[in-house]
């Protein structure tokens, strides 16, 4: 007797996603390529029609979102409370961590399941070698580079990898949302930045040297427009902007999914 099952009604009988034909085949972008090209053309036409404009929406204009400042403080306090609570639990309940892989076990004695994939695990028949665990074995916060000026200098160059400080990603997220920490200073603006031909221009001085530059820029804004147009005109500028838009999507997904990881 054959039983007919409605595949649309029962989610258990849906088709599996098609695997990639080869390992070299790239996965599709979250946003289709045609959509990215159309957006780039629309942005270019908008810059031509209005080359100088004030960015109104925070946090893109350099200002803070007022509703998120208190949220950032609550997240920071919750992180401290979480670390304090986990440290108290570890003192009472033992945690075991394999010396050669990322396997974690909660208990007095580690398990005997041979699933170790660390170095020379074949010589040990994939047996785990247990040691005492710590807080970072239960909950892990990945690090990232700290940005002093997230709008004026949003990128960290390769040559700056040893000079720019690294902080936990959850802390950097709170700092950029409005949390002020003395150890990690960040620039706070009181006026929105300008967008001139797609380039971010800041007329608010941050230091005494920037104050002189701001006065010169305010006296003759037309020269800034001419220089900015010269820098951004041509094929290379458009391609670099589009390439940045494509490459940044992977970073966005990682930041949303991996701000912290539980062991």
UniProtKB/TrEMBL annotation:
Residues 1-35 are annotated as: Disordered. InterPro entries: APO_dom (IPR023342). Residues 1-10 have a biased composition (Acidic residues). One of its GO terms (molecular function) is RNA binding. It holds the Pfam family APO_RNA-bind. Residues 97-183 form the APO domain. It comes from the Eukaryota. This is APO domain-containing protein. It comes from Escallonia herrerae.
């Amino acid at each position: 007797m054959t039983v007919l099952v409605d595949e649309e009604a029962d989610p258990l009988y849906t088709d599996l996603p098609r695997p990639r034909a080869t390992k070299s085949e790239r996965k599709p972008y979250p946003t289709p390529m045609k959509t990215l090209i159309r957006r780039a053309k629309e942005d270019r036409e908008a810059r031509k029609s209005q080359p100088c404009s004030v960015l109104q929406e925070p946090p893109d204009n350099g200002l803070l979102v007022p509703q998120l400042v208190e949220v950032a403080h609550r997240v920071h306090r919750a992180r401290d409370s979480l670390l304090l609570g986990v440290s108290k639990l570890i003192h009472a309940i033992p945690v075991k961590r394999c010396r050669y892989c990322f396997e974690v076990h909660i208990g007095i004695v580690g398990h005997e399941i041979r699933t170790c994939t660390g170095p020379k695990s074949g010589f040990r028949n994939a047996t785990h070698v247990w040691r005492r665990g710590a807080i970072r074995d239960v909950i892990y916060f990945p690090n990232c580079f700290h940005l002093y000026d997230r709008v004026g200098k949003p990128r960290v160059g390769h040559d700056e990898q040893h000079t720019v400080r690294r902080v936990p990603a959850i802390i950097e997220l709170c700092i950029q949302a409005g949390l002020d920490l003395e150890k990690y200073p960040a620039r706070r603006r009181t006026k929105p930045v300008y967008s001139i031909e797609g380039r971010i221009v800041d007329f608010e001085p941050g230091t005494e040297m920037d104050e002189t530059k701001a006065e010169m820029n305010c006296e003759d804004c037309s020269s800034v427009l001419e220089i900015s147009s010269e820098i951004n005109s041509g094929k290379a500028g458009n391609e670099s902007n589009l390439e940045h838009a494509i490459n940044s999507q992977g970073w966005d997904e990682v930041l949303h999914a991996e701000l912290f990881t539980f062991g």
